[in-house]
Amino acid sequence: MKKKTIDSNKKEKREMFDYSKHEADFKQAEFWAVFGVIGNILLTVVKGIAGVLGGSSAMVADAVHSASDVIASGVVFISLRIAKKPADEDHPYGHGKAEAISSSIVGLLLLAAGYQILMNAYHAIAGGSHGVPTAIALYAAILSIAAKEAMFRVTYRVGVKINSPSTVANAYDHRSDAFSSIATLIGIGGAMLGFSFMDPLAGGVVALFIMRMGYSIVIDASHQMMDKSVDEEIIKKITQITQGTEGVLSTHGIRVRQSGPFYLVDLDICVNRKLSIEEAHEICDEARSNIFQKMEKIADVRIHVDPSVKD
C-alpha cells in the first residue's frame, strides 16, 4: 500500500517571509552601488587623463578597467532594485536570482575588458613601442590604489552583512582594480627607472588580474543559478531547529538553495502516524515558525510530512 503523506504547504494560512524587514539592507547596498558608480567615473577620468598625458599604456589599461567598473556598479544597482521585490504570481520564489544574473554580467565584463587589455599589451611589447611614462601617471596609480582598496573594504563589509552576492561581486571588482593599479604602479616605476618594457608588461599583468577575477565571479554566479547546495553549516542549523520542534521525530531530505541574499528551504519531517492531519499541520507550522524566527534570510520553507513507520 502506498504510504500516506501530508503536504503542509497546502494549508491556506501560513507564515510568510516579510521582505519589508530587509528594506534597510537593500537601501544600504543601493547606496554603495551608486557610490561605486560615481567613484569609478571619477577614477576613469583621472586615470584616462593621467595615462594619456603621462604616456603610460598601463595606466590607460587601468582606466579601461575602471570604465568597466562603472558598468558593473550600474548593473549591480539595477539588480538590487529587482531582487528586493517580493514574490508574486509570476515569480513565486521571489526575484533574488536577479543578483546572480547581474554577477554573471559583471564577471563577463571583466573577462572581456581583461582580454582587450591583454591584447593591447601584447602588441605594445611585440611592436617595441615602449614609451617612458611621466610622474603624473605614477601619482594617479597611487591615488587609485588607496581609493579602490577603501571602496573594496566598505562594499565587502556591506555585502557580507546583508548576504548580497552582487554586492560582494562588486566589492571584489573594486579589489581587482586595486591590484591592477599596484601592477600599474610597478610598471610605471620600472619604466621611469629605465626599464621601458615594464609599462606595457604591467598592462598585461593587469589584464590577467582582471580576467581571473571575472572568471571567479562567473563561476560563483553559475553555482547560484544552478541551485548549488549552500554551506553545510546552514543545513545543520535548520536540522537542529526542526528536530528541536515538539512532535518532530526526525528530518530528512533537506535541500537549501540561495536566491540572491535569501534562502529557500525544502525538507521532510517524520511525525507520529497516529496524529490527525490537523495535528500534523500544527507541528509543521511550529517547525516553520521556529526556522523563520531563529534564522535570518530564510525566504521560504516548504515542509513535507511522512508518518512514522512505527508508533
The number of strands is 4
Strand order of the largest sheet: 1-4-3-2
- Provide the helix percentage: 55-70%
What number of domains? Answer: 2
CATH class value of the largest domain: Mainly Alpha
What is the number of helices? 8
Task: Tell me the fraction of residues in β-strands, as a range.
Answer: 5-15%
Indicate the CATH topology of the largest domain.
Alpha-lytic protease prodomain-like
Structural class: alpha+beta
Order of helix and strand elements from N to C terminus: EHHHHHHHEEHE
Low-confidence stretches: 1-15
User: Given the C-alpha coordinates, what overall shape results?
Assistant: elongated
Let me know the CATH homologous superfamily of the largest domain: Cation efflux protein transmembrane domain
Gross CATH architecture of the largest domain: Up-down Bundle
Give the overall pLDDT as a whole number. Answer: 81
Largest sheet: 4 strands, mixed
Rg of Cα set: 25 Å
Distance between the termini: 18 Å
Description:
This protein is 65% helix and 10% strand. The protein has 311 residues and is α+β, with helices and mostly antiparallel strands. It has 2 domains: 20-225, Cation efflux protein transmembrane domain (Alpha-lytic protease prodomain-like, Up-down Bundle), CATH 1.20.1510.10; 230-307, Cation efflux protein, cytoplasmic domain (Alpha-Beta Plaits, 2-Layer Sandwich), CATH 3.30.70. The chain has a 4-stranded mixed beta sheet with strand order 1-4-3-2. The longest helix is centred in the first third of the chain and has 31 residues, at 23-53. The chain is elongated and about 85 Å long. Mean pLDDT is 81; it is low at 1-15.
